[in-house]
Amino acid sequence: MNDKNNERVFKMSFASVYPHYVTKIEKKNRSVEELHQVIFWLTGYNDDQLKSIIEDNINFRDFFDKAPQLNLNVGLIKGVICGYRVEDIEDPLMQKIRYLDKLVDELAKGKNMDKILRS
After folding, report:
1. Which residues neighbour 74 within 8 Å (Cβ) at sequence distance 6 or greater?
2. How distant is the alpha carbon of residue 4 from its chain centre?
3. Domain parsing of the chain, residue ranges
4. Which of 21, 27, 114, 117 is buried most deeply by CB count within 10 Å?
5. pTM for the full predicted model
6. pLDDT digits (tens, 9 = 90+) for 1-38
7. What is the DSSP string of 39-108?
8. How far apart are CA 96 and CA 30, in angstroms?
9. CA 13 to CA 3: how far, in whole Å?
């Protein structure tokens, strides 16, 4: 991805993408609670914080900049998402966004929660 495309993604509100995550996982009989578990594992957010992020239309840059604690095991997230290997993405913010995309994708594909959360 080029810097212009990255910047466009960084400015997107999390709230605008969140319904797509929900639709994707629910089509595969996964729950919103599981989606939240994945988001909380990655970012350290909790239910109240996530609700505020959605209500306040926080963009992806701020979503990750203000995350309480990026999980120490994010380096264990590997594989291809959107045509890119997540472990090879050079821009740190884009890599975090793709980590989230990868986790949501694994959830939708029916992967066991222990494997998704790298337990």
Report:
1. 42, 96, 99
2. 21
3. 3-111
4. 21
5. 0.94
6. 567 889 999 999 999 999 999 999 999 999 999 999 99
7. HHHHH---HHHHHHHHHTT-BHHHHHHT-S---TTGGG--SEETTEEGGG--SHHHHHHHHHHHHHHHHH
8. 22
9. 18
